[in-house]
Amino acid sequence: MPEPNRKWILPVPEETLITLPNLPAWAVLSLILGVAAAESLAFVGLVLPGVALLFALAFAAGSSGLDLGACLAMALAGALLGDGVSFWLGKHSTDRIRNLSLVKRHPAWLEQGERFFARWGGLSILLGRFIGPLRPVIPFAAGSCQMPTPRFMLYNLLSALGWAPAYLLPGYFTGRGLQAMPPALEPLLWLVAGLVFVLLAWQQLHHRLHPDSVLSQRLGQLLPGPWPPSPLVMLISTAGLLLLSTALTLSPSGENLNQTLLPTLSALGALLPKTVLAVTLLGDLELALILALATSLFGALWLRQTQAWGVILGTLTVIALNVLLKHLFAIDRPEQAALTTFSFPSGHASAAAAWIGLTCTWWAHNRPHAQRHNSYLVAAPLILLIGLSRCLLGVHWPLDVVAGIAEGLAVAAVYRIWLYRYPAKTLAPPGWLGALLILTLGYVAWQLGPAALAYRIG
């Protein structure tokens, strides 16, 4: 195969792969203490993406060999401190806190915590520690209800003893594995850790951008006109990610990143090639068009929703944009790839992000925030797996996949912004998602044999 087309490569000096900041041990431990305390502090934890931050800090601690006992002690101390301060505020300053303008604008915060505490009593402190929206409110509610201090301290200690390892150990052992695994597998661990952090950060951010949240309202005040904060943040971040992945692809640093990650990923994909191929078929352009068109026809003709036409129009837009970008940059695929068309961005990744993202957006747009959030949580890992399968098959560079996903999600975000102004009057039935699942499984079963030949999988 000819050498990759380099006409667009930017003359940027060679750089190493992503590395952690060289923070001293006391700084990492202090950050763990501070984030754990803030995550549990009354009302502060409602807007702080503490789960994602603690995962990143635990990963940094594990990869640098910090003592696990010290990390757990800092997390435990922070959890005890945050809940303790919240309890003290509820016990001694409840009237002052209730009269704050921020709390008055969001009475549901306290009401939900007080109802939970009234129902479960001391057990609510154990349970609430692991329920995101309640964690920063329950100790304050316990204090305002004048729970005896020794009893609260006992429940606080028991809950923190379980919370600290549950939130720290996954990130710590992932980082620890960076030291133990062979150097050839280190890029894979970085990739997994990065994906987990991105998913956690996105989940935490979207959860805190529900329409009644402080963060959403503050962003709404900064935006011109009736721009909805949540999809606008998604549009800006995905458009920025598309530009960043493009710039990296055209630079020596991006070439180094691609060539470092791809051999490990393709070797991993060779362990279960048929399974990886079945996953990658979910991003076939034919399937994307079939399902997007079926959804639009169902919504427009059966539910009388003209808004549903956005699913097929958005999918066609992404496919057309992808073809344009492929020919604009003319980046060759990896050597030994079974396919010969241009590589950047990944058409499968963009098509999957388009039909899944647009369908999910249409189905959930006029539902409560919690239902939208849960539907996005189901869709996000599926989109990532389809994109990752392209690297596992060795037919796309990793940055091709990043750009493709960003491309599809950016169009889905534009569609969501439009639906804010023109929402459908009827709800799409949950059974339609089941129908799409049946169609998808049927397509995969039908195409698995021919696809194995096309991808040279025996």
TrEMBL record:
Task: Give the principal location in a single coarse category.
Answer: membrane
- What's in the keyword line of the UniProt record? Cell membrane, Membrane, Transmembrane, Transmembrane helix
* InterPro entries registered for this protein in UniProt: DedA-like, PAP2/HPO, PAP2/HPO_sf, VTT_dom
Record has Repressor as a keyword: no
Transmembrane ranges, per UniProt, are 20-38, 43-61, 67-89, 116-132, 152-175, 187-205, 232-250, 262-281, 287-303, 310-330, 342-364, 376-395, 401-419, 431-449
Q: Where in the cell is it found?
A: Cell membrane
**What does the sequence similarity comment in the record state about its family?**
Belongs to the DedA family.
Its protein name is: Undecaprenyl-diphosphatase
From the broadest rank down, the organism's phylogenetic lineage runs: Bacteria, Pseudomonadati, Pseudomonadota, Gammaproteobacteria, Oceanospirillales
